[in-house]
From TrEMBL:
Disulfide bonds: 229-243, 316-319
Pathway: Protein modification; protein glycosylation
Primary location recorded for the protein, binned into one broad class: Golgi
Residues involved in substrate binding: 156-160, 187, 262-266
Membrane topology: Single-pass type II membrane protein
Annotated keywords: Disulfide bond, Glycoprotein, Glycosyltransferase, Golgi apparatus, Manganese, Membrane, Metal-binding, Signal-anchor, Transferase, Transmembrane, Transmembrane helix
Gene: LOC108085037
Protein name in the entry: Alpha-1,6-mannosyl-glycoprotein 2-beta-N-acetylglucosaminyltransferase
Cofactor(s), names only, from the UniProt record: Mn(2+)
Chain residues that bind Mn(2+): 294
Domain of life of the source: Eukaryota
Amino acid sequence: MSKTRGRILIPLPNTGAMGRKRNNFYMRSLFLLALCIFGLLQYHNFNYLDSRDNVLGDAVTNDSDDAILAMVPATLHKYLTPHSRNHTASGAGAALLLNASSPGGVTATTLSFDVYHPPNITEIKRQIVRYNDMQLVLNEDTFGPLQNDSVIIVVQVHTRITYLRHLIVSLAQAQDISKVLLVFSHDYYDDDINDLVQQIDFCKVLQIFYPYSIQTHANEFPGVDPNDCPRNIKKEQALLSNCNNAMHPDLYGHYREAKFTQTKHHWIWKANRVFNELEVTRFHTGLVLFLEEDHYVAEDFLYLLAMMQQRTKDLCPQCNVLSLGTYLKTFNYYTYHSKTNKKSYASSLISTSSLLGYNRNNNNRNSVQLAVSSSYSSSSPAAQTSSTSSLKSAKVYVGDTADNQKASDLKRDNTSIKRGNLINTVTATAAISDTNNEQSSHSSNKNGAQTWNYHVLPSLYSVYQKVEVMPWVSSKHNMGFAFNRTTWTNIRKCARHFCTYDDYNWDWSLQHVSQQCLQRKLHAMIVKGPRVFHIGECGVHHKNKNCESNQVISKVQHVLRIARNSHQLFPRSLTLTVPSLMKKSKLRKGNGGWGDLRDHELCLNMTLSNR
């Protein structure tokens, strides 16, 4: 008999090790299974989005001239095709004409003609007076006289004809553009720009010319007088040298620079000219919308402006300004295909710090970063779009960024917008974000070109265009904004506050007027889905290596194409959203550049009516 038969098997104590191993195995298996399912869902989701090329277009836009032309109807290509007068024929002002009718056969005849010469200052001044006296409204015979309640669009123009061409193309595609009066206010006389403007055939057009420009007063005030005090000279030295305005430097001890003062003069002059001096606007009671040469509009901007005007009575009786624009350094337009949990989407949005964060280390002169949500809507069951904006440089000169030298001398309080209800109003499409330089509002890479990232995200569901109401803020609501004659009359009564406030920015001066003088403060209704975009790369304060870049123009065109193909424009109605809680806007010290008494006097004189 085997010895082992008599052994009694005693079970080992249960330490739980095997159970834990089994549990860990099951947990890992479940985790891997969940990860696989999640990956498959994500793969399916991106494949689904990629299959919607008819809505999204290409993920990477092409900013070549041909690609941009392809985005524009053929009938509008004439506005993008330069026809400069500054050319010569065969390099010598001559041309050859073949003559087949001569007795000796075909002969070549040389025809000489004068090469174009730009007008001199005397001729420019004469032409400016002629234009301003004539007040000729082009295309009035085609589109009829201006109606008293029609929209007037005023475009402030300097020299950037490339951007102006694209603004005109965008205006030409807008619904009801034939009903407006389009006024171009110039502070630089240029025959090529005049030819472009006079080529417009889709609405009534009027040109006005600021008569006190640096171009026509190059060596005298309001240009640069030879006896002007140098900007950085000390007051004691200025008094000893007896230079102009030695007694009145600005808040920071600097003397005037003509190139920085012109835009404020031009803005107040054009507003007064349109409301108080033009015959065609004598009885006008409608809205006047202010744009600039480096803006771009959506095709439903007039439709939405009219809707906002109609709803002010019930949504915002105190509103006297309507704002269609946002400075979108980063803007998101989302494709609509499904509802998304707000909480989960909010967490993903918050993780994008470049869209929401405020750069506290940026102390540039006009350092502001905005986080703005926007939504387009339409009658389609999935039609909502949002836009999140990050702006590090507030608008100083229209379309320009802060000058570094000016930034170190002229102080401005940094402001930020709290996130608040941003998540509740954000929906999704294609995001265009700037990922390069954190210190510049128009950052550039080593080659001087902007870098953009393109993303596609799911959306929230909405059928209403959102608007919000808040006090008018110069750095946020100065692009694509409109008001009527009543509001202008109140502003004009406060001309002394505008013209003597030591800040060379017209928008900050206007905010000073609202805070210090107006009994009824400027209160704005702002559309969350912007219909006016800023496409300018360069300006008075900032000179990029590639000032004629098409990159931003291409992105804006592509974003609007997405919105159009997704039926996100022309919303059925408006809904008011409660804005994030914001600190009360404090009275700020001016940015300077406006201490010269000659500027004060000229500004005040331009608010007088000559009608």
